[in-house]
Specification:
This protein is mainly β and 237 residues long. The chain has 1 helix and 18 strands.
Length: 237
């Protein structure tokens, strides 16, 4: 009886794994209007950026990805340079790296299709870079406020901050671009119950601007451009 139950559990686990697995299909099976093109331009330094595109069918949250076939290709242009996006280790995800770019550089993207509708109206400008300052080390999460500062500031772009570490529960905030984010004492919740610990906390900051995604794509497509910066500090309970 135990053995039979074990087989049932294993079978259920197998079904769950299949249900959560990534699926793929060829672009030759999908019209342009059925492709959700999720484009993000990530700049991790003041002069370099990566164009990252995920192609999905069934909307932006679908787990079915599109593999480009039969002459279909993605082409990005920035700073006077044009590149064909290459495949990554994951099917349906394409990237190209650019150097010599800066805040205000325009990026554009084309899905070129010899046998279906080409989508060429995808573009946006990169937000200005910023420097993320390292917060003060060893402040008490329970007793001290935490100041996070960055410069320059004052843009109308979106700002997003993520805090993570082995001694806290992940925490996020999306303040205005004022140059200062203050977390009141007790904001970062400690793990460990009655025995919280010290650890290194990582701060990931994004300055994000939305561009234009071609309306020939699925309506859940996007074109977003980000300046990303990261720092860390030691935190005590």
């Amino acid at each position: 009886m135990f053995e039979r139950g074990g087989l049932v559990v294993i079978g259920l686990m197998g079904l769950l794994a299949v249900g959560c697995s990534k699926e793929t299909t060829s672009s030759s099976n999908i019209k342009t209007a059925g492709i959700a093109a999720l484009t993000d331009v990530y700049a991790d330094t003041d002069t370099t950026a990566t164009v990252h595109v995920e192609l999905r069918v069934g909307g932006s949250s679908s787990n079915t990805y599109v593999s480009l076939d039969n002459g279909d290709k993605l082409i990005a242009t920035a700073g006077g340079e044009t590149k064909t996006l290459g495949t990554t280790d994951e099917v349906g995800i394409y990237e190209a790296k650019f150097s010599g770019v800066s805040g205000g550089t325009e990026f554009s993207l084309v899905l070129e299709r010899p046998n279906d509708t080409t989508a060429s109206d995808n573009s946006g400008t990169l937000p200005d870079p910023f420097t993320l300052d390292k917060p003060t080390d060893d402040l008490s999460r329970k007793n001290d406020a935490l100041d996070v500062t960055w410069a320059p500031s004052g843009t109308s772009d979106d700002m997003d901050f993520d805090f993570d570490g082995s001694c806290i529960f992940p925490y996020s905030e999306s303040p205005s671009d004022s140059g200062t984010l203050t977390l009141a004492k007790g904001t970062l919740d400690s793990t460990g119950g009655d025995m919280p610990k010290a650890c290194k906390i990582t701060v990931d900051a994004h300055r994000t601007r939305s561009g234009i995604a071609d309306d020939k794509f699925d309506s859940e497509s996007w074109f977003r451009l980000h300046q990303r910066r990261s720092t860390s500090f030691n935190s005590s309970p």
